[in-house]
Design a protein that fits this description.
Layout: E1 12-13, E2 30-33, H1 41-48, E3 52-57, H2 61-66, E4 78-81, H3 101-109, H4 114-124, H5 126-137, E5 146-150, H6 157-168, H7 173-187, H8 190-201, H9 208-215, H10 219-231, H11 235-241, H12 246-257
């Protein structure tokens, strides 16, 4: 599948997703992407022509400094930075000297599994996810009411966030999981090879777990995150605990589905 924004790899609209109550999610409301630093000039023109008025960036300060987003000059798009540490892929941390291969391997053995990573996000990032939901629910500019959310790859932080919002409004689980899983194929090839080469150039041993964390979107990972939400009352209850009001939840459903219930 070609990316919605030229030069990126994993940009797409979540519209057209089937709902459990019938119908489908609305296009031009919630969009998702990898980072926009690779956007081409044509991609910037495509972005400017969309209804996107807000871009939510889940990357850390370090990630943004290393790969700043490219944005169209023809109009203003509001940027909201909601940095999430889980899932971040930044450069090596400063140290007092070289890090041995053995030390690196030991650190890699402590990496979380993908289900553990996603549950960690949900445990720590409720306020950020609620803020994303609020921005989708209440567009500030009716001319450009859509929200684009992205991180670096557009698969982990972005994947959990979009799955959460889509589950909250009643999208079918199989469709949510399929949308999440699509990122692996979108990122395969140039993006994935380049990211792994970058890590290899840093001297990082490419263990199977690290390779999966960087490039994969196994269905079991997002299913584990959704199961964790189910065990705690569901996605809507999660967002309520994170500060989203009943009115905002209704507005979110109406924006994404066309119906408040």
């Amino acid at each position: 599948m070609s990316s919605l924004i030229g030069g990126t790899y994993n940009a797409r609209d979540t519209g057209g997703m089937p709902l459990t109550a019938g119908g489908a999610t609305r296009p031009g409301v919630l969009l998702r992407s990898d980072a926009l630093g690779t956007a081409s000039d044509n991609g910037l023109a495509q972005l400017a022509a969309t209804p996107i008025g807000v871009i939510v960036d889940f990357r850390t300060d370090s990630e943004r400094q290393q790969a700043p987003d490219r944005l169209p000059a023809s109009r203003t798009i509001r940027i909201v930075e909601l940095p999430l540490l889980e899932g971040a892929l930044a450069g090596p941390a400063p140290s007092d000297g070289p890090v041995s291969t053995e030390a690196m391997r030991a650190a890699l053995e402590q990496l979380p599994t993908m289900p553990e990573l996603y549950v960690g996000m949900l445990e720590h990032a409720g306020e950020a996810f609620a803020q994303l939901a609020r921005l989708v629910a209440r567009p500030a500019d009716p001319r450009f009411p859509a929200v684009l959310v992205h991180c670096t790859a557009g698969k982990d932080r972005t994947g959990v966030a979009t799955a959460l919002l889509l589950d909250t409004v009643g999208a079918r689980r199989e469709a949510i999981v399929a949308d999440y899983a699509a990122s692996e194929a979108n990122l395969a090839g140039r993006w994935a090879d380049g990211m792994l080469a970058r890590l290899g150039a840093m001297g990082v041993p490419l263990s199977p777990r690290l390779t999966e964390l960087v490039t994969a979107t196994p269905r079991s990972a997002i299913e584990a995150a959704l199961a964790w939400l189910d065990e705690r009352g569901g996605s809507a209850a999660y967002l309520r605990r994170a500060g989203l009001s009943e009115q905002e939840l209704g507005e979110l459903r109406e924006r994404i589905t066309g119906s408040p219930s």
